[in-house]
Amino acid sequence: MSDEAYRYDLYDQCLLSAEPQALTRSDGDLPADKVWRLKSGSVEEPATGCVHDILDFDGIKRLRVWHDIPGKVVVSYDETRVEWDATRQQIVLDLSRDLAIPVGVILERVVAPLALMLLKPSMIALHASAIADKEGRAWIFIGNSGAGKSTTALELMRRGLTLLADDLVLVDTNTMELIAATPTLRLFDQPESVPEAVQNQLVMPGANLNKYWYQLADRKERRRRFEIAGIFSLQPIREQNSSSIQELQGTESIAQVLAQAFDLTHGSSQFRARRFQKLCTLARNSPVLQLSYYPGDREKPAQVAKILRYLNREDVQ
Amino acid sequence: MKNKFLPTDRFSLRPDLVVEEVDDEVIVLDLEGNQYFGLNNVGWMIWKAIADEDRPLEEIVSSIATQFEIDGALARQDAEAFLVELIEAGLATKQPLNQDK
Question: What is the chain B residue with the closest CA to A278?
Fold first, then answer.
């Protein structure tokens, strides 16, 4: 079968595969440097060059990343290994037999962000969610775990805005664009609480509610890059009637963004310096708005109304 | 208040520091100490005088007094306080006295 039998979107890249994959089908033409051949094969763990070594949020799955050879990134997640090779424009999958998570999810949420961040110097990844407003501009939501990033994105989507990403946001700081992912959400909730989802999967059991991954129907618009309009830093507070939106400056804005920017456990000084410089570029070009809000009623998230009022202001460009 | 430095003292900044400007503030990243600092206008002026021009304290103080139209003694107090902060944070050192300039 031809290597090009199946074409898939992965962020703003196109994957060509001889076999069907759990990814979004592609119908666009992209430049050669954005087209990758996806194939199965054997991937060895490199002996040197480990830049990231961490247990996943469940404390069980180990994630390791190697970047020793220019143009090549190797990712080992659980018992799966992937080699992302920019010199050959190919991605080699070495999959374990009992894959609990679909390979498309592993590629999109784990491998691709790491590979793109390491291979493309202008890329950064944020622990965030994002939507597009009615003018097609991206708004990013950052905050600590439990601040309401995913809930905010879901509720804004239900009010007519477009979900671009959840949990992980990729930004190209050369063009100040967000690169959208497949529309998915990770929420502590019941499986039936997101009826818009086309499928869901348990990703982490919780004390009262389990965390599910919900996949939503793909966006009608196939555009993958969105100009960034601003960043909301969500700060739940205890005082009722004290919600506010305040634009942060200088070190205050950097502090918010730095805290949510992906970092490597064994990153080089060069990587860390570049990471800081890219985040400063992001903060210079996008307003960082601290949204303090009282969480209140879970059925009526207070921050959503405040964000909509802000987005609908006449002086918002 | 007793002066901490001599008027002819010069200072050096660590070469591995990363400096970026965001809004009206200059932010310095110290990778070794895993911390970052914000500099205001006076701090940035002193920083540049050290980094770019290798100027002694007395010239830095004079520039501050002129630029911000403040008393020389106050300018020296501000400059010395900032330089002490830099040294204590490990970002700068005072050059030895026997270096020829």
Answer: B20
